[in-house]
Design a protein that fits this description.
heterodimer, A: 191 residues, 9 helices, globular, B: 320 residues, 17% strand, membrane (chain B), transmembrane (chain B)
Chain lengths: 191, 320
């Protein structure tokens, strides 16, 4: 059952939106039950849940990633891990009963949290800055490149999203955007 | 499997926008081995379509970027690959491609979450509609309060049955009054549209949209047009005609192929540029302003980005 859920996602990444919408209410309910409504507000739950979905999304293509539980349980567990980290950072205390914990839908073996990408390489920093510059200038380039490199979208998907007449045109546009990004990044890294 | 000559051919098309019948194998060898590629291609007479040195260098860079990206999918001889690896242009591109996926993560995550939480009705929830609805609700609440007062008054006065018609007219008159106030108020304070009916200080022109064909986002040859209406702000406010109190100088509304401008200084040099698909800029007396789709009047924001200005200037220049 769990493998099926993951396989469906692997064969069609766009299913992630269905997962997002389906699992969100239960994850919110889980977090309230886990930490109490007074300890965690909607905004915080929203951020934590989004981060948990990113964790799942980034694991879709990892062949070593296997689900031993349902996607809902996986997301609950990741939400719990992220929230606990947040509480630790804020030095915030929260109360929960043993009975509650026993009844909760999460797995302690799941230890994933969202890893923040640390750009320690100056060239990487320059590319990130180049993205910011491109974004400020407007246009589709940052989105096209993010779709290709982050979302692993196909040229067909990119062509469809940006109304290019065919995947070849999308590929051309992506190549031009990539070259422009490199030019901006090179200027920044030389400064 | 992709071959090196495929890449040479494809990147030529990408750089020059047309196909050519060249000896791609020899050109590929020159790209990999030459230290002065433009000169060598010229000496060996491998190109014949007036390709400039700048274009050739752009092409060569794309060639190595493509190799760096497709490295694992390439059908390539080991000796040739060793030569490629020692090429500095390849090395620069390889470094870029190596760092690109990780550097895209932050932006990728941001856009991914945006796509998950996007509200398909967002366009409908424009502030004007919210205001209109809020006004409606407020008016209805006021009306309900009035009804209660009237009922109380009615009970106190112990109105005889024959006065029911009068009461009905009273309700109807109040409802009409509030309805009129709501409509007039909304149009006057949030739309400004009536002022564009006055030909005394409004000029209207139809302009062809100048499209940026250089970026390849459009290859269609069909033209599109917009109606541009310009209100002379100074004339409008000094006019005896009633002018909306909140007429904003140097503002615009851009919706449904109509651009309405309220300008302090009269201008006859106005051009509309579609820089990328659905990304519009207006040039007024050689200054550029970004346009957002908005029914409501918003302040014109001048572009200060020198690179963007240069690009927009170039598009105007090419379309002169």
């Amino acid at each position: 059952m769990q493998a099926n859920e993951l396989n469906e996602l692997r064969s069609d990444r766009t299913q992630i939106k269905t997962v997002y919408l389906r699992c969100k209410p239960k994850c919110f309910g889980f977090m309230i039950k886990c930490f109490g409504a007074n300890n965690i507000d909607d905004t915080k739950m929203f951020t934590i849940f989004n981060d948990a979905v990113i964790v799942l999304y980034e694991k879709i293509d990892d062949p070593s990633f296997n689900l031993t539980s349902s996607i809902q349980t996986f997301l609950n567990s990741v939400c719990r891990n992220i929230a606990l980290n947040e509480f630790k950072k804020e030095k915030k205390l929260y109360k929960t009963t043993d009975q509650d914990i026993e009844n909760m839908d999460y797995e302690t073996q799941i230890t994933d949290v969202l890893e923040e990408p640390t750009a320690d390489n100056p060239y990487e920093v320059a590319i990130q800055k180049a993205f910011t510059i491109m974004k400020e200038k407007g246009g589709n380039c940052p989105e096209i490149l993010a779709m290709f490199w982050y979302q692993k979208a196909s040229m067909e998907d990119i062509a469809l999203k940006f109304s290019y007449s065919n995947p070849a045109n999308a590929k051309n546009q992506k190549a031009k955007c990539q070259k422009r990004l490199k030019e901006i990044a090179l200027q920044l890294v030389q400064l | 499997m992709t071959t090196l000559t495929d890449i040479t051919k494809n990147t030529y098309l990408l750089t020059f926008g047309h196909e050519a019948n060249y000896d791609w194998n020899i050109i590929t060898t020159v790209f990999i081995e030459s230290s002065n590629v433009a000169n060598d291609l010229s000496v060996k007479q491998l190109l014949n379509q007036n390709e400039t040195e700048e274009q050739i260098l752009y092409w060569q860079d794309l060639f190595f970027m493509e190799i760096a990206e497709l490295e694992n999918e390439l059908e390539i001889d080991n000796d040739i690959f060793e030569k490629i690896k020692s090429n500095t242009i390849y090395q620069a591109n390889q470094k870029f491609i190596e760092h690109l996926p990780k550097a895209t993560t932050v932006l990728g995550r941001e856009l991914f979450i945006d796509s998950l939480i996007e509200n398909e009705d967002a366009d409908v929830l424009i502030p004007d509609n919210i205001l209109e609805n809020a006004l409606k609700k407020k008016s209805r609440d006021d009306l309900r309060n009035e009804f209660e007062k009237w009922n109380e008054e009615n009970e106190k006065a112990n109105v005889p049955k024959g006065n029911k018609t009068f009461l009905f007219i009273k309700y109807l008159a109040a409802a009409c009054f509030l309805g009129i106030m709501l409509t007039v108020g909304y149009n006057t304070f949030y739309k400004n549209n009536s002022i564009f009916d006055n030909t005394e200080f409004v000029s209207t022109v139809q302009k062809e949209v100048i499209k940026n064909r250089g970026l390849g986002f459009t290859d269609d040859k069909d033209k599109s047009f917009v109606i541009i209406q310009i209100v002379d702000y100074n004339k409008a406010i000094s006019s005896e005609e009633s002018t909306p109190k909140n007429l904003i100088a140097d503002s615009y509304s851009f919706h449904h192929k109509t651009l309405q401008l309220v300008l302090k200084e009269n201008s006859d040099q106005i051009e509309l540029i579609e820089f990328e698909k659905d990304k519009f800029y207006v040039a007024i007396d050689n200054k550029f302003y970004k346009l957002a789709d908005s029914e409501k009047f918003i302040k014109l924001q001048q572009i200060n980005d020198s690179q963007l200005i240069e690009n927009l200037d170039q598009i105007l220049f090419e379309n002169e």
